[in-house]
Each structure stands twice: as structure tokens, then as C-alpha cells.
């Protein structure tokens, strides 16, 4: 847990802090509410692993235990969290392992276009590969220098700053590489397949042709 925190460039950090505007329709939330479906899972380190599977480049599954996963290079990203129910939490400093790192060490096959990010109890969210590998997407273990609490996703949650927060599963356990898009948990239940808050892609009825698989 005592990994050296490699701060992002000062430029990026102050940019994040200075940008006070929120995506359309969002309001600032004081504090940090807890929002999710279902119970908070209990973390059992001896049973925990992180898996990369599906269409990997070598056709193999890749698996890390908790010690191995948290030993991967640590970095921080200052980012806001936008819930589709219209609250935003701004200026958090997330610490963890860049999603890009996983793609580098366990590469997808060349025809992979999307990923499904899997969490405890079968929660999932689908992302375009380009959103997943964007330079600020992070598997977070920490927020503002402290370990995540259980209700906020300990030991691991995905943060994808440029998408609505449901695209970042808490209690994440793995990534499936996919050669075609498939809807995740909320995306099957009426939420937008892409989920860009800046263009208010909240609900699946707003999808344009090509935004997602048939419902
Ligand atoms: N596993 C899991 N992760 C999840 C969710 C969920 O229901 N299950 N909800 C998402 C939603 S809708 C939001 S807004 C954020 C909330 O994160 P927070 O509770 O840390 O504020 O978690 C996301 N990650
Ligand atoms: Mo949300």
C-alpha cells in the first residue's frame, strides 16, 4: 500500500482543479455519497484475483492475486465523478494502476473492439477499447491518498473520468476482451451504451444508430 505516488504533471492537476464547470444537468454534491445496486462484498484476500480473459492476444487467461496486482506501477489521476442521477463529486485524487497497463501486459487480440469490466456479484459494464485505454482510466485502490473504503469499492474500482460513473465498477475483479460489443448490467437496464456526460448520454432511448447493440 505504501507505493510511491507518482503525481501527474502539475499542468494536468491544476487544469482539473480550475475547471469548475460540470457536465450539463449535473449539480455539485457535498461529501461523497454511496451509490450502487446490491450489497457491499466482503474482501477475502486469499480468494481475490484479477482476471483478464476472452480474446487475449495469446489465447490464455491472465491472473493476478491481490499482492501481485497491487504491486503493479502506481499512479494518480485527479478526476471528477459524475453519477447519472445528476450529482457530481469533483476534484478527487484517485491512485492506482492505469487500465492501459493491463492492456500492455495482457494484450488483446487485434480484433478486440470492446471490453466488459466484471465486478463482484456479476456486476458488469461494457466500454469501447479506446475508452478503456484512454490515458486517465485507472483501476483505483486509493482516493486522496487513502485506501478506498469497502462501500466505495475496496479493494479495487475502475475510474473512467470522461464517462458517467456507472461505467466504473466498484469491487472489480476482471476484464473480458470482446470482438463485438455487448451490454453490461446498467446498459441492459435502460442506461446509455456509451455514457458520455458531456453530451448527456444518460438513457438507452437516446442512443443513435451505431452507439450500441440492439436492445
Ligand atoms: N459494482 C458496482 N459498481 C458500481 C455501481 C454498482 O451498482 N455496482 N454503481 C455505479 C454508479 S451508478 C455510481 S454513481 C458509482 C458510485 O460510486 P460511489 O458509491 O463510490 O460514489 O459507482 C458505480 N459503480
Ligand atoms: Mo450512478
Automatic annotation (TrEMBL):
CDD domains, alphabetized: arch_bact_SO_family_Moco
Region (Disordered): 1-31
Residues covered by the Oxidoreductase molybdopterin-binding domain: 38-186
Highest taxon, organism lineage: Bacteria
One Pfam match: Oxidored_molyb
Compositionally skewed regions (Basic and acidic residues) per UniProt: 1-14
InterPro entries according to UniProt: OxRdtase_Mopterin-bd_dom, OxRdtase_Mopterin-bd_sf
Name this polypeptide is given: Oxidoreductase, molybdopterin binding protein
Organism: Streptomyces griseoflavus Tu4000
Amino acid at each position: 500500500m505504501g507505493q510511491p505516488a507518482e503525481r501527474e504533471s502539475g499542468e494536468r492537476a491544476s487544469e482539473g482543479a480550475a475547471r469548475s464547470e460540470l457536465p450539463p444537468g449535473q449539480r455539485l454534491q457535498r461529501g461523497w455519497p454511496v451509490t450502487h445496486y446490491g450489497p457491499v462484498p466482503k474482501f477475502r484476500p486469499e480468494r481475490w484475483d484479477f482476471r483478464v480473459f476472452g480474446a487475449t492476444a495469446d489465447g490464455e487467461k491472465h491472473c493476478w492475486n491481490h499482492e501481485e496486482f497491487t504491486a503493479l506501477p502506481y499512479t494518480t489521476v485527479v478526476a471528477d465523478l459524475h453519477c447519472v442521477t445528476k450529482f457530481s463529486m469533483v476534484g478527487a485524487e484517485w491512485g492506482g494502476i492505469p487500465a492501459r497497463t493491463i492492456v500492455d501486459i495482457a494484450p488483446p487480440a487485434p480484433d478486440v473492439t470492446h471490453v466488459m469490466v466484471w465486478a463482484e456479484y456479476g456486476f458488469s459494464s461494457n466500454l469501447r477499447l479506446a475508452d478503456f485505454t484512454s490515458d486517465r482510466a485507472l483501476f483505483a485502490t486509493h482516493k486522496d491518498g487513502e485506501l478506498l473504503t469497502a462501500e466505495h469499492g475496496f479493494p479495487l474500482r475502475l475510474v473512467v473520468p470522461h464517462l458517467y460513473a456507472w461505467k466504473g465498477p466498484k469491487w472489480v475483479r476482471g476484464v473480458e476482451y470482446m470482438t463485438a460489443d455487448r451490454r453490461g448490467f446498467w446498459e441492459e437496464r435502460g442506461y446509455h451504451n456509451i455514457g458520455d456526460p458531456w453530451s448527456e448520454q444518460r438513457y438507452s432511448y437516446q442512443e443513435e444508430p451505431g452507439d450500441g447493440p440492439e436492445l
